[in-house]
Write a structure and sequence with these properties.
about 800 residues; alpha/beta; eight-stranded mixed sheet; binds adenosine-5'-diphosphate; binds aspartic acid; binds magnesium ion; Bifunctional aspartate kinase/homoserine dehydrogenase I
Length: about 800
């Protein structure tokens, strides 16, 4: 004898019913088969909805009824029954009875648990009959037996308890004499000793199958559903989840108790003692291996077997100094909840015994609050206990594994990876058996938390980074293209799964939780929604993806103003925009502090020397205990380009225009030519060396003409370059006369910094600096005479983009 159970999706369409029948037909060739079925997918919910509507005098219950009717008749039509077939008459009769019951509820305005059970029973009665008739119609030896005549319970409606002595006897007697090869049983439904219709709890068809399997002492119970087994976590929320091959009864029970809906928690009980394995299989993919639940010892690479979650949790906190040392306090609390039939899902008690926290179903919260407040009325009045606190919109996440107890540091890993992703933990409980660690978090963080933990415990090999890029001009575009090109390499070689989840220019923005398809990103962006800076932030925050990084590829002050908000959400920031780092010292410090506090990296290597590893080198020197004594540098790729190309045969205006066209200047070239850009860079290096300094502390000797300094638009500025050509030729001539090169030099010495155009003699390391190159010389305690020198291209879209990319990878490797 074999016992199989098919769930709501498995019997939810004619196509799936045909799948079920072919599976049964195959099994029936070798053995007798008992098949337990659920209601057609979604019908139990609809029956309850119709009941609620009728109870509330809402006539739309008739629409809901008609929908239920249509769903069943559609399936019957597709199964090709003869119009005169007895099945039509039977279904009609059942639906009429259902309609009368709903009309009755509507009339009396009342829906008791007893009536509710009667109401939902229609779901399984209809589905089991349809399947059995279809099989008979196809000449198979099959019959439907109403399990209400076999499974006997108490009168605890909506979640009745089984009387195993009577039930086992009924089942054994029936199957001893039943003649058909395949028996279809409706799951979930039963009757009380005095003949009232009862149910075994939502999801209870699994349980029916286990009761039958145990009563008949079969060798294996098969639960056929719509996924290929019990997964490492809910596959609807975590794409990377995968089926667990083997799992123990205890682990399966813990996972299902904490929300893995694929198995109704009590299902394990009846089969556990008899050692009957449960095999979970997929009706839609029958070849897939599925999961075997048994008491066989299982080994796996991770001590964590699975992660599950239950939503709609309310947390009840009872606290007060009067609780300390009072015996019987907990007893009264739990008695109160038990009297109200409130199920406690999670308990934590502070070691001071000064507070106790309970996780319960959110729907029970009001009832619990009233009841507990009543029980402790006196203590509350005497201020020994505070009135209870109820928090809602919470969820429990749980790590489960028999082997967790033998491994140190699992909870540490769990909480640090949640913390890194800014997931606030409201309460923690560890099962006494150490088979589970559970935490209460905000409902809105569940998806991120499950993905984070899954990555931590099941995908240690790859780390997903979710990038949100603002600014896709010259540099931004190059960055996107570089990412597109390198994605595969990063995955294969660095185990980084890099995805762009948000993109924006000044007009449009797009987002994708799965990562934007980069094959036609420009087109998608053009058709995106209207961009705003706050809108971009809000979307990034709402997507709530793990390892999120905001990348600022603008030179915009308002964008820089938002870093604080990103960091406070534990979203990392990578910027080539130097405004924030060179803003007021307090702001620079604040961002650094937030980065530490929220565990969100803030990297800005490209602020100085584009892609050259200047800031990283400096931080490594400092971190390893070195001290910077002075810095000499040419830090403006644009100014270097300008003075390398400007001479008595070229025009200053033309050279500056060319630098702008090649993308070597800031969008506003005055920022470069006035020296402000270089001043910002040396300021950043000074600050990174540990000195408190502001932009106004930097001595800036301008080389621009007066009118150039005073121009108030970019166009005006260009005009002054034409007009003041003689001034610039004068600078060139003076240098040439001394056989010197003009270089724009930044210096940091003795806590002071300056920037100025200098005439560099031919024996100086700066003399031969070509094109748009930068050079930095760090004199430190460890490099007192021969400085540490970093030299190379210090401007250009490609190298700046690769500098940003390097910062992103730095975060990925962390
Ligand atoms: P059935 O109607 O077949 O009883 P259920 O909807 O009750 O199916 O259970 C299957 C569903 O359980 C899956 O579709 C999936 O969404 C959900 N689920 C939640 N957690 C898990 C998990 N860890 N493994 C597999 N499925 C899970
Ligand atoms: N049909 C019932 C429910 O939806 C029982 C089940 O599907 O297992 O809860
Ligand atoms: Mg189910």
């Amino acid at each position: 004898m074999k016992v199989l159970k098919f769930g709501g999706t498995s019997v939810g369409s004619s196509k799936n019913i045909n799948n079920v029948i072919s599976i049964l037909e195959n099994y029936a060739k070798k053995d007798r088969v008992v098949c337990v079925v659920s209601a057609v997918g979604g019908i139990t919910d609809k029956l309850l909805l119709a009941g609620k509507q009728a109870q509330n005098k809402d006539t739309t219950y008739i629409d809901t009824f008609n929908l239920i009717k249509d769903i069943h008749f559609n399936i019957i039509n597709e199964l090709n029954f003869d119009k005169s077939s007895s099945i039509i008459a039977f279904i009609d009769e059942k639906l009429n009875a259902l309609k009368s019951l709903l009309d009755g509820i509507f009339l009396i305005n009342e829906l008791s648990p007893k009536t509710s059970d009667k109401l939902v029973s229609f779901g399984e009665l209809l589905s089991s009959y349809i399947i059995a008739e279809t099989m008979k119609n196809r000449g198979l030896s099959s019959d439907c037996k109403n399990s209400q005549e076999l499974i006997v319970t108490n009168s605890n409606f909506t979640k009745a308890e089984v009387d195993y002595t009577v039930t086992n006897k009924n089942l054994q007697t029936y199957f001893n004499t039943a003649l058909q090869q395949i028996t279809i049983l409706p799951g979930f439904i039963a009757k009380s000793k005095i003949g009232e219709q009862t149910t075994l709890g939502r999801g209870g068809s699994d349980f029916t199958a286990a009761i039958v399997a145990a009563a008949l002492k079969v060798e294996q119970l098969e639960i056929w559903t719509d996924v290929s087994g019990m997964f490492t976590t809910n596959p609807k929320l975590v794409k990377q989840a995968y089926p667990i091959e083997k799992i123990s009864y205890q682990e399966a029970m813990e996972l299902s108790h904490f929300g893995a809906k694929v198995l109704y928690p009590p299902t394990v009980q009846p089969v556990l003692d008899l050692n009957i394995p449960i095999h979970i299989k997929n009706t839609l993919e029958p070849e897939a291996a599925g999961t075997v639940i048994s008491n066989e010892e299982t080994r796996s690479s991770s001590p964590v077997k699975g992660i599950s979650n239950i939503g709609n949790i309310a947390l009840i906190t009872l606290q007060g100094s009067g609780m300390i040392g009072i015996p019987g306090f907990s007893k009264r609390l739990f008695e109160t909840l038990s009297q109200e039939k409130i199920n406690v899902i999670l308990i934590t008690q502070a070691s001071s015994e000064h507070s106790i926290c309970l996780g319960i179903d959110e729907n029970d919260a009001e009832l619990a609050q009233t009841a507990i407040d009543a029980t402790f009325e006196n203590e509350i009045a005497l201020h020994k206990i505070d009135p209870i606190i109820v928090e809602k919109d919470l969820s429990i996440i749980a790590l489960v594994g028999d082997n967790m107890k033998n491994h140190q540091g699992i909870s540490g890993k769990m909480f640090s990876s949640l913390g890194k992703n800014n997931i606030n933990i409201r309460a923690i409980a560890q099962g006494a058996s150490e088979k589970n660690i559970s935490a209460v978090i905000l409902q809105s963080d569940v998806k991120k938390a499950l993905n984070t933990l899954h990555e931590q415990f099941f995908e240690t090999k790859t780390k997903q980074l979710n990038i949100f890029i603002t600014g896709v001009g010259n540099v931004g575009e190059k960055l996107v293209e570089q990412i597109k090109q390198q994605r595969k390499y990063l995955k294969e070689n660095l185990k980084i799964n890099l995805r762009i989840a948000g993109l924006s220019n000044s007009r449009k923005m797009i987002f994708s939780e799965e990562g934007i398809d980069l094959s036609n990103w420009k087109e998608q962006l053009e058709n995106g929604e209207q961009a705003t800076l706050d809108g971009f932030f809000e979307n990034t925050k709402t997507l709530n993806l793990r390892n999120s990084i905001f990348v600022d590829v603008t030179a915009n002050k308002d964008v820089a103003g938002l870093y604080e908000k990103y960091l406070r959400q534990s979203i990392g920031v990578v910027a080539c925009n130097k405004i924030a780092c060179s803003s007021d010292y307090e702001n620079y410090k604040l961002l650094k502090r937030l980065s530490l506090k929220y565990n969100a990296p803030y990297l800005f290597e490209t602020n100085v020397g584009a892609g050259l590893p200047i800031i990283d080198t400096l931080s490594n020197l400092i971190a390893s205990g070195d001290k910077i004594t002075s810095i000499h540098a040419v830090l403006s790729g644009s100014l270097n380009f300008v003075f390398n190309n400007f001479n008595d045969t070229t025009k200053f205006y033309d050279v500056v225009k060319q630098a702008a066209a090649e993308g070597y200047t800031e969008p506003d070239p005055r920022i470069d030519l006035s020296g402000v850009d270089v001043a910002r860079k040396i300021l950043i290096l000074a600050r990174e060396s540990g000195v408190e300094m502001n932009l106004e502390n930097i001595e800036n000797t301008p080389f621009l003409s007066d009118s150039g300094m005073k121009s108030d638009s970019v166009d005006d500025f260009y005009q002054t370059l034409i007009k003041d050509e003689a001034h610039y030729q004068g600078l060139y001539a003076s240098a040439k006369a001394k056989d010197c090169q003009l270089k724009y030099v930044a210096q940091f010495n003795d806590g002071k910094a300056s920037v100025s155009l200098q005439e560099i003699p031919n024996d100086h390391p700066f003399y031969n600096l070509k094109g748009k190159d930068n050079i930095v010389m760090f004199y430190t305690q460890r490099y007192p005479e021969q400085p540490m020198i970093i030299k190379g291209a210090g401007a250009g879209a490609d190298v700046t983009a690769s500098g940003l990319f390097a910062d992103i990878i730095r975060i990925g490797n962390d």
